[in-house]
Amino acid sequence: MWWSVALARTKQRWLPALVIPFALAMAVLFGSVQAGATVSLPPRTADEILAMIARTEVRALSGTVQQTAELGLPEVPTAGPGIAPGAASALELLTGSHTARVYVDGPLKARLQIMDRMAERDVVLNGGDAWFYNSADNSATHLTAPAPSVADVRESLPAKPGPDAPSDMPVREIPTPESMASHFLAAIDDSTEVSVGESSSVAGRSAYRLSLHPRSTETLVDSIAIDVDSETGVPLGVEVRAKGQAEPAYSLAFTELDLSTPDAALFEFTPPPGATVTETAVPAKPVPTMPAPEDAPTLRHPVITGAGWDSVIALPAGSAPAELTSNPQLSQALQPVAGGRAVTTSLMSVLILDDGRVYAGMVPLERLQSAAAQ
Q1: DSSP string, 199-235
Q2: How much is the pLDDT for 121?
Q3: CA distance 29 to 295
Q4: What is the mean pLDDT of the chain?
Q5: Where are any strands of DSSP class E within the chain?
Q6: The dihedral of CA 196, 199, 203, 205: what is its sign?
Q7: What gap in Å lies between CA 134 and CA 121, rounded to an integer?
Q8: Per-residue pLDDT tens for 49-92?
Q9: Angle formed by the axes of helices 177-185 and 16-26, to 10°?
Q10: Cα separation of 127 and 269, whole Å?
Q11: H-helix segments, 121-215
C-alpha cells in the first residue's frame, strides 16, 4: 500500500504471501474459517477458475472474516509489568482464532474492525488517510499522504489482465481472502502444480477450490487451497498447510458476506475522547536520490537468493530495528542461535543476526543460516 515499505517485486513474489500476514499483524491488522460441506457445481478446469478470478467485478463488499493461525509460535504474556499493548496484540494475532468485520468500497476505501475479547482494533483507509486504533490503550495513529488517483492505481496494474492481475488496488493489503490469494496466484509458475479440488460452501455461497502444491522439497509449505465464489469469481477463503502438520497452519475466510456497497460513514474515523493520537505524514512516492559514493553506508535494499518456494530474502547489516530485538514480548518469541536469534514457525523462518542482518523465507532455519554464511 502507499505507506508500506516496498520490497523487491518480481523475484521475491512468493515471500509476501507469508511475510504480509506477519507485517500486518505487527501493524495490528488481521483476521478465517474452513470451507463447509461439499456442493455440486458444473466442472471447471484450473485455468477456467483462474480466469474467473481475473475477471471478477466485485469492488465493494462487507462481511465477517475469521482467521485461524496455528504456526507454532511460543506463548507470550499479554499483560504485566513492562508489557506494551501494541506488541502483545501483534503477537496475539498470529496465534489462535480472531474475528473481524471488513468493509471495502472501490480502490481507495476500506475498514477492518477486529473484535477480540480484550480489545477492539480498527484500521480505516479513506483516500490519503489511514487510521490505526487500539482500544486497549486508547491510542490512534493517523497516517496522511497525497491520495493516489485512479490513474495511479491503474498504472500499478499489469499491462494485461490474467491470473496475476486479480483486481489490484491500494486497499488489497487489508487482510481479506482476495488480498491473500492474490499474492499466491501472482506467483504461479513451473514450481507449482495447480489443480481443482472438491467444491464446497463458504459463507453460504458455493465455491470452487483451487489447489496449489509446491514441487519443491525444500519449502515448509505443503499446499494452499483457495475457495473461489462460483458466481462472482471473488476468493472467499484461503487455507495454507505446512508439511508434517495435520491441521491447516493458517486460514482466512469469510463467514458472512454482503456484496452491496457499504455505508460511506464507515470510512470516516474520529478518535474517541481522551485518545492518544500520533500524526504521521508519508510521501506518496520515494524521493529520488543520487548514487552513493563507494564509502557511503550500504543502502538497505533486499537481496533475493533462490527461486520460487525456496526463495530467501536478505536485508543487510543494521536492518533489524532496535524495537524488534529489545521489545520484551518479541524477545520471548526469538530463540538464540549461532550469531543471532531466530523465529521459526510451521510456515516461515526469520533469522536476525547480531550485526542486524535479517533473513526470511518459507524454508527451514538451516536454509537461512546457509544463505547467511555465503
Answers
A1: -EEETTEEEEEEEEEE--SSSSEEEEEEEEETTT--E
A2: 87
A3: 40
A4: 77
A5: 60-70, 95-105, 109-115, 120-126, 129-134, 139-144, 192-196, 200-202, 205-214, 221-229, 235-242, 250-258, 276-281, 303-305, 312-315, 335-337, 340-344, 349-353, 358-361
A6: positive
A7: 5
A8: 999 999 999 999 999 999 998 888 765 554 444 444 444 455 66
A9: 150
A10: 13
A11: 150-155, 177-185
Query: CA 185, CA 207: separation in Å to the nearest integer?
Result: 17
What amino acid is encoded at 276 in this protein?
A: T
Q: Are 55 and 161 in contact (CB under 8 A)?
A: yes
Angstrom distance (rounded) from CA 208 to CA 222: 20
Cβ contact 165:181 at 8 Å: no
Q: Residue 14 and residue 185: Cα distance in Å, rounded?
A: 9
Rg from Cα positions in the chain = 20
Distance CA 24, CA 359 (A): 18
Q: Which residue segments constitute the domains of the chain, with CATH numbers given?
A: 16-281 (2.50.20.10), 304-373 (3.30.310)
Please tell me the number of Cα atoms within 13 Å of 98 on its side-chain side: 29
Predicted confidence (pLDDT) at residue 238 exceeds the cutoff of 50: yes
In angstroms, the Cα distances linking 299 to 12, 67, 282, 289, 318 are 18, 36, 20, 11, 10
The alpha carbon of 132 is separated from its chain's Cα centroid by a whole number of angstroms, namely: 16
- Cell representation of residue 354: 547480531
Reported in sequence order, the residue ranges of 235-320 that DSSP labels E, i.e. its strands, are 235-242, 250-258, 276-281, 303-305, 312-315
Can you read off the three cell numbers belonging to residue 119? 480489545
CA proximity to 313, closest of 11, 4, 22, 73: 11
CA distance 256 to 236: 10
Q: How far apart are the first and last CA of the chain?
A: 33
Whole-angstrom distance, CA of residue 272 vs CA of residue 367: 47
Which pLDDT score, from 0 to 100, does residue 235 have? 96
